[in-house]
Amino acid sequence: MFRIVGVCLVLGVGFYVLAVNAVLISFGVCQTPSGLAGHCVPLADCKSLYDLILSAAPSEAQIEYLRRSFCGSDVNGTTALAKNRVCCGDNPNVKNNDPYSGKILPVEGSCGVTFNTRIFGGVDSSVDEFPWSALIKYRRPYNASALNCAGVLINQRYVLSAAHCLRNPSIPTTWKLDSIRLGEWDISTDPDCFPSADGKGRCVDPYVEVKIERIIIHEKYIPHSQSEFYDIALLRMAESVNYSDTIRPICLPINPVLRQMTFEKEYADVAGWGRTEISPYSTVKQTISLGIWNTDACASRFKTIGISVDKRLQMCAGGQAQQDTCQGDSGAPLTLRGRNMNDPYYVVGIVSFGMQPCGMASWPGIYTRVTNYIDWIRNNLED
After folding, report:
1. Is residue 292 domain-shared with residue 362, that is, in the same domain?
2. Residues 163 and 304 in one domain
3. Pairing relation of β-strands 123-124 and 70-73?
4. Residues 227, 84 within the same domain
5. Residue 331 half-sphere exposure, CB side, CA atoms within 13 Å?
6. What is the pLDDT of residues 121-162, one digit of tens each?
7. For the chain, how big is the Rg over CA atoms in Å?
8. CA angle at residue 171 from 166 to 172, to 5 degrees?
9. Which of 105, 126, 214, 368 has the smallest number of CB atoms closer than 10 Å to its CB?
């Protein structure tokens, strides 16, 4: 995950993926001037309105429609077509006959359930532990691929991740966003097998990869900003996934009481395949428990190096020597369980950024505070 301004992530890098990737980038759900549901996208990515621009003599009504379609500006765009965002009703990839609604979030009892009781300075997880963990796959030139960045499954169509994993102008455009991998544990084997009590061993189902249909990046996120405010994104998969022992969704902290909590002095878990003490990445999913800081104290710490921390938008965790999330963990969830063993896990943070090198004492990692974005998440889910 980690970088201080200007230093690229190693495994947790994000990519600026425009229309060339065949994945629609959205900056949120919107309503077109004609009242239809649409997505706020760069003008260059909306065929119907782009064609209108190219028409020889658009009518006054068409010009007015285009003006009313404007839904924001992109400060990182290099051309007018890339800078101007419009509410576009073109949704060619949406499958209206899908029996599983992407809007439906799982209820307690069907989310946040891990079948085990139980990174940098972390330990191997169990094969069926943290079954909501997701990996983001990118295609590279010459038929190569890479698993860079992580995410968390929130229902059968959507994964929550960090915006910086998906939109970063410094990354080569030859790297294409491709798919989501779920049900993974050891990336060096498929299927994953482990010893059992009878000595015969047991294997779980192979991992599942689902193509990405659309990414929705928070409209206020600014790539390469020092503080990484609004570092959150949704990835919509091209089809619904079936749940299993190794693929299950996390719970969102929707409850009003949870949404008001800071979680300070609590301990939260992170799982991922990022950099470890001895390797650029771990083949086996690692897990670690991190203490959540008082955000004011965290903000004071980062202020000494010129970085702002906003306690409404962010939270801090870690800060113990040799215990931290690191490169490759970007987008992974910071999860918290209720007081009782039967309580579900909730995603309260998303790995955003921190210090280099990882695991420095008294320097916590910065996480996107999920409770601040519940409405944004729900408003951007579609059937």
Report:
1. yes
2. yes
3. unpaired
4. no
5. 35
6. 445 668 888 999 999 999 999 989 888 889 999 999 999 999
7. 21
8. 115
9. 126
pLDDT more than 90, % of the chain: 43
Q: Do 131 and 55 share a structural domain?
A: no
198, burial (CB in 10 Å: exposed 0-12, middle 13-18, buried 19+): exposed
Which residues are annotated as catalytic?
164, 231, 330
Task: Examine residue 169 and say whether the peptide bond preceding it is cis (omega within 30 degrees of 0).
Answer: no
Task: Label the pairing between strands 314-318 and 286-291.
Answer: unpaired
Question: CA 62 to CA 49: how far, in whole Å?
Answer: 9
Summarize the confidence of residues 166-182 as an average pLDDT.
83
| 125 token code pair | 């997880």
**Does one domain contain both 281 and 360?**
yes
Q: Are 331 and 350 in contact (CB under 8 A)?
A: yes
Two tokens at 185? Answer: 């544990």
75's tokens: 């400060």
- At residue 77 the predicted structure's pLDDT band, cuts being 50, 70 and 90, is confident
With a CB cutoff of 8 Å and minimum separation 6, the contacts of 256 are none
**8 A C-beta contact, residue 129 and residue 123:** no
Q: Which of 258, 166, 33 minimizes the C-alpha distance to 48?
A: 33
For residue 67, the enclosing domain spans 33-88
* Within-domain flag for 301: yes
Cβ(348)–Cβ(262) below 8 Å: no
Provide the number of structural domains found in the chain: 2
CB 116 within 8 A of CB 129: yes
105 belongs to a structural domain: no
Same domain, 72 and 171: no
